[in-house]
Here is the input.
Amino acid sequence: MKSLVVYYSKSGNTRRVAEEIARAVGGELEELVEVGVKRSGALGFLRAGRDGMRGRASKIDAPKKRPADYDLLFIGSPVWGGNIVPAVRGYMTSADLASKPAAVFCTAGGASVERTLATLHSLTPTSRVLGELAVLQGELKSPEALSHRVATWAKEMVAAAGAREK
Ligand SMILES: Cc1cc2nc3c(=O)[nH]c(=O)nc-3n(C[C@H](O)[C@H](O)[C@H](O)COP(=O)(O)O)c2cc1C
Here is the structure.
């Protein structure tokens, strides 16, 4: 089973979770890179929160991998302003996800996780979401527990995708 882990990360938390997933299931990584938006400094932070809250989609560098070449997609986003980040929205609304089974995840300070996961669900074509995972940034302080939780979930997603194929 070939898995692709697509994510955006500004400060590294979502990247860490994405890397744990990829390691657990032998998957490949696709990090989304925004084009033409400044996210640094106080203004960048404010703009990021506002863009997340308003449901903006941003332009991203052309993805290097094609979802059609994989059996399972993991798609992950930080929470910004109570919702998914513009880069992930840009990806999900422009990439051909090929109706592949998907598993969605987010990282957050602690709020609006349900809404963010619901958005990830709604942007995944035709109810192909196998499961979801939310990681709060406090959990990153316990690397072993985090690694175990993420790997267990990721392997469950692979098993669920495999069961669907039969
Ligand atoms: C602009 C901005 C807005 C944020 N808004 C929220 C929020 O609404 N709810 C929340 O729980 N965390 C929020 N956070 C915290 C991030 O979701 C959290 O730190 C996340 O793990 C960052 O992921 P990253 O390190 O992959 O960029 C926000 C962070 C930033 C930079």
Summary: The chain has one domain: 3-165. The longest helix spans residues 143-165.
